[in-house]
Design a protein that fits this description.
Layout: E1 2-10, E2 13-19, E3 42-47, H1 53-69, H2 71-76, H3 81-84, E4 93-99, E5 108-116, E6 122-132, E7 139-145, E8 150-154, E9 165-168, H4 176-179, H5 187-198, H6 228-239, H7 243-251, E10 257-263, E11 271-276, E12 283-284, H8 290-303, E13 310-314, H9 322-338, E14 344-349, H10 352-356, E15 363-368, E16 374-378, H11 379-382, H12 399-404
Parallel strand pairs: 3-14, 3-15, 13-14
Antiparallel strand pairs: 1-2, 1-4, 4-5, 5-6, 6-7, 7-8, 8-9, 10-11, 11-12, 15-16
């Protein structure tokens, strides 16, 4: 479970922290008044257009690309390092993730910094894993010395050269985390790798092809793919002959949809079609409304038996009518209450209705400072306290619409 994350010098996100990292990046007269809050099953990012919400999702996708394909690919995909670096920023582009394993009392921290030399190429400046191993009182740290291109394993809180056990990596283009072998003494390595390999980032494509993509996934590639056809193919490979019944079990609640048919007669190009209410002939996916296809993909990703450890949606309400938007709200509410342990949803939205069904502690409002950089506030910290501090805040069902509707 992610408890928080921070991002520095990435696009408009010059210095942003959410969750446990939040107090480190805000100015308050009394730091004790802003307590860390671990992220729950659902985290909603809202605010005016251009305030940096989608950049947060792209930051996750960027780190995922670094893990799977290397630094050059991740930067080149976005136009180069100088394009994504915060104008006027200082230091490197860096990301940090606070992460807790099930039944572990202390969270782990993974951080990576990407440096750049003008007219040359980006490189890994530093990389760190720090956590407390079981009941032992000292943290284990894994980092890189950018001068010697060596990463280290440190068995002491005071990290110094004399105390470091060296693990040599001479590759400055690929994350060491991707190269680490699983180790029974350090289970957090495997957990972090699972997070990076399996999170479902929102460069997901709702294509309207009738066939499924049977292309083999590359090493470290997300098993669910980045296309709806790949996601269906993932279900086919996972459930075999039961794939159609499993997909129909998940999609049964979608408005106006009766069933989904998967025709695998042609194994090179299986076909996907939908039976809609009042229409006897199955409809190929290429003739289906985009709203129904979008809801279909949301349901599959949120309600599968073992969903991805992290799922991101960027403005999922786009293209949905009132009924579909209500269904999406209920879907998010259900996920927030009953999500399998270890699975989380991070989404951006301009829909006050989606924010209304969320808890104020899970809603973060984005804005811009005078320099044009992103600032973040948690909705729960902006709501006036009740007269009796011992009583919970009694919020109306439209709490966000009535208090913050003008901020989106």
């Amino acid at each position: 479970m992610l408890e928080g994350f921070w991002i520095r010098n990435f696009k408009s996100l010059k210095q942003v922290g959410i969750g446990t990292a939040f107090p480190q990046f805000v100015y308050v007269e009394d730091p004790a008044s802003v307590l860390p809050f671990d992220l729950g099953a659902t985290t909603l990012l809202t605010g005016l257009s251009g305030s940096g919400k989608s950049s947060v999702l792209d930051a996750f996708s960027f780190v995922s690309d670094c893990y799977r394909h290397g630094i050059d690919y991740a930067c080149g995909k976005r136009g180069g390092y100088e394009t994504i670096y915060s104008h006027g920023g200082k230091g490197t582009i860096s990301f940090g993730f606070h992460y807790r394993q099930p039944n572990e009392p202390v969270a782990a921290t993974y951080a990576v910094s990407i440096g750049y030399v003008r007219n040359k190429a980006p490189y890994i400046d530093s990389e760190l894993i720090a956590y407390r191993n079981g009941k032992e009182s000292f943290p284990i740290a894994f980092l890189q010395n950018s001068q010697k291109t060596i990463r280290y394993l440190a068995p002491d809180e005071q990290i110094s050269g004399a105390e470091l056990t060296c693990i040599e990596f001479t590759d400055l283009k690929h994350l060491g985390l991707a190269a680490l072998e699983s180790h029974p003494k350090y289970p957090v390595w495997a957990s972090l790798r699972n997070l990076f390999e399996n999170w479902s980032t929102d460069d997901f494509h709702i294509e309207t092809t009738s066939g499924l993509d049977t292309t083999q996934m590359k090493f470290h590639e997300n098993p669910r793919g980045h296309k709806l056809s790949q996601l269906i193919n993932y279900f086919v490979n996972k459930f075999g002959d039961d794939a159609e019944s499993e997909i129909n079990r998940l999609a049964a609640s979608i408005p106006n949809l009766e069933s989904v048919l998967i025709d695998c007669t042609n194994r090179e190009r299986p076909l996907l079609s939908f039976v809609m209410e009042g229409i006897s002939i199955p409809i190929p996916i290429s003739h289906l409304s985009e709203a129904t296809i979008r809801l279909f993909s949301y349901v599959l990703r949120l309600e599968e038996s073992t969903p991805a450890p992290l799922i991101t949606f960027d403005n999922p309400e786009n293209g949905l009518d009132r009924i579909h938007n209500w269904f999406l709200s209920e879907l998010l509410r259900k996920f927030d209450v009953s999500a399998p342990h270890g699975s989380q949803l991070l989404l951006t939205t301009h829909s006050a209705e989606l924010a209304d069904v969320s808890h104020p502690q899970n809603v973060w409002i984005f804005g811009r400072d005078q320099s044009g950089f992103t600032i973040v506030e948690r909705a729960a910290d902006l709501i006036p306290p009740s007269e009796n501090p011992n009583e919970p805040k009694n919020l109306e069902s439209n709490w966000f619409s009535s208090m913050f509707g003008d901020r989106i």
